């Protein structure tokens, strides 16, 4: 169960003065701040990214990961990913927040009084950059976020370099940890709505992210030694109380954005057939938390899912015949949080690593801890019979069970479920009803159309490298 509610009212103003030397007196507003405070920017980046990507993850990510399906406005659900509807365009979310985070990082290195922000800024940069490249593949990175230096058409960098090069994902996590551990100042970290300024929590967050990203690239590189060292040290997110999350509220302005959709748009999302079959086969009580019973039933507890990707123009669907998303996603969103990294996900990753022989650890113990924490996270009672019956590690394929349990737990973060399906093949997603992608499940997001217009030469090269910006070309860590 969540032990504390953290409600944040974001009152943020950012004024950046741009003036020339000759006209300084008449162009300077004496009532505006002359610099951006990193505490305000850190609060903004964490909240804006978390709030927007939680909505994106539920709407578009859950369609790709087959948690839910869309009844209408569903070209995206039919895998025409170049037609985002009610979500499906995360590109600007990444770049706007990476840009603002870069300002924090620069300020931390330019002014010693802001040095406490370097570690968190590097960790956030690694976190957001990984999510970006895992969705799209090669993206602008090393030359990006430098518009104030005149670089407005950055080149696309390879995913391998974004992960492995200096100032890439893994390097920034290491440098972020080092910056925190070497910080000897007394100025506190402010604007931190993840950990309330606790730098040790940021280190645990970074180490959990290292476990995640090492597993993500484990088919390309030997990561066993690094994983074992992280596991042995144990300084990663171990308990739900240590999760990298911030809570939504029941009412505006900080409730889950799905609650602010028109009722017709909210009712567009129903349980997928994939999710229905998995939860039903597991006799999983979380079904009543994540979804509602169908309206057209006298039984009161009957659930029904729909195969993804229907052709809404030729298929008549009665929403009362299918299970809508649970009340926690609309009426009671104070139960939800913006999920950056959790103990449950960390333990499922370690269970997978142990199952594959990448670390020496007790697979069943790690798996059962992940399941227990997942039930606790969703505030559902875990019965004694679940882990000895349908939810047992060895009830079928242990690896599939580990990934499937992680998939269920990540419903608030649906892009992760799709990414991990691409990496592992689990859970076994279905061929959708009326595919607009030749019955293929996409393996990357397409670059948005504005890139072709605003960064044409670099976009063209990246498009050529992905067979015309195809959604069926594997990213680096997913290549055979």
Automatic annotation (TrEMBL):
Keywords tagged on the record: Lipoprotein
InterPro entries for this protein: SusD-like_2 (IPR041662), TPR-like_helical_dom_sf (IPR011990)
Cited Pfam families: SusD-like_2
Protein name: SusD/RagB family nutrient-binding outer membrane lipoprotein
UniProt source species: Maribacter cobaltidurans
Native organism taxonomy: Bacteria, Pseudomonadati, Bacteroidota, Flavobacteriia, Flavobacteriales
């Amino acid at each position: 169960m969540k032990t504390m509610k953290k409600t944040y009212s974001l009152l943020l103003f950012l004024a950046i003065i741009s003036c020339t030397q000759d006209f300084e007196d008449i162009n300077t507003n004496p009532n505006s701040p002359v610099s951006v405070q990193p505490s305000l920017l850190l609060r903004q980046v964490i909240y804006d990214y978390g709030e927007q990507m939680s909505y994106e993850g539920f709407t578009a990510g859950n369609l790709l990961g087959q948690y839910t399906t869309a009844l209408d406005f569903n070209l995206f659900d039919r895998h025409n990913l170049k037609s985002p509807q009610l979500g499906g365009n995360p590109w600007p979310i990444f770049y706007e927040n990476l840009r603002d985070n870069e300002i924090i990082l620069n300020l931390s290195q330019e002014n010693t009084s802001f040095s406490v922000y370097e570690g968190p800024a590097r960790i956030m940069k690694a976190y957001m950059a990984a999510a970006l490249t895992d969705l799209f593949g090669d993206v602008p990175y090393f030359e990006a976020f430098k518009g104030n230096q005149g670089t407005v058409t950055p080149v696309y960098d390879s995913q391998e370099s974004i992960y492995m090069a200096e100032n890439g994902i893994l390097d920034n996590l290491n440098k972020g940890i080092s910056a925190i551990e070497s910080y000897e100042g007394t100025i506190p970290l402010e604007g931190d709505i993840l950990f309330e300024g606790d730098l040790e929590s940021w280190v645990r967050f970074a180490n959990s992210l290292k476990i995640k990203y090492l597993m993500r690239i484990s088919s390309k590189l030997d990561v066993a030694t690094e994983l074992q060292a992280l596991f042995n040290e144990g300084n990663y997110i171990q308990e739900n109380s240590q999760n990298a999350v911030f809570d939504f509220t029941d009412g505006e302005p900080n409730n889950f954005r799905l609650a602010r959709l028109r009722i017709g748009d909210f009712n567009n999302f129903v349980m997928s057939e994939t999710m229905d079959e998995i939860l039903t086969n597991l006799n999983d009580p979380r079904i009543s938390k994540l979804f509602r019973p169908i309206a057209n039933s006298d039984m009161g507890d009957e659930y029904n899912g729909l195969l993804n990707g229907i052709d809404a123009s030729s298929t008549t669907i009665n929403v009362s015949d299918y299970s809508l998303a649970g009340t926690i996603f609309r009426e009671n969103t104070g139960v939800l949080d913006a999920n950056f990294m959790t103990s449950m996900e960390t333990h499922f990753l370690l269970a997978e690593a142990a199952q594959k022989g990448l670390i020496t650890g007790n697979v069943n113990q790690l798996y059962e801890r992940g399941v227990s924490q997942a039930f606790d996270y969703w505030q559902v009672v875990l019965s004694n019979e679940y882990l000895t019956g349908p939810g047992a590690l060895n009830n079928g394929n242990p690896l599939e069970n580990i990934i499937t349990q992680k998939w269920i737990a990540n419903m608030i973060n649906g892009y992760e479920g799709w990414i991990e399906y691409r990496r592992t093949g689990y859970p076994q997603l279905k061929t959708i009803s009326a595919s607009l992608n030749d019955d293929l499940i996409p393996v990357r997001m397409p670059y948005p159309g504005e890139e072709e217009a605003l960064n044409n030469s670099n976009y063209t090269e990246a498009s050529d490298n992905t067979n015309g910006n195809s959604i069926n070309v594997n990213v680096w860590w997913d290549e055979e």
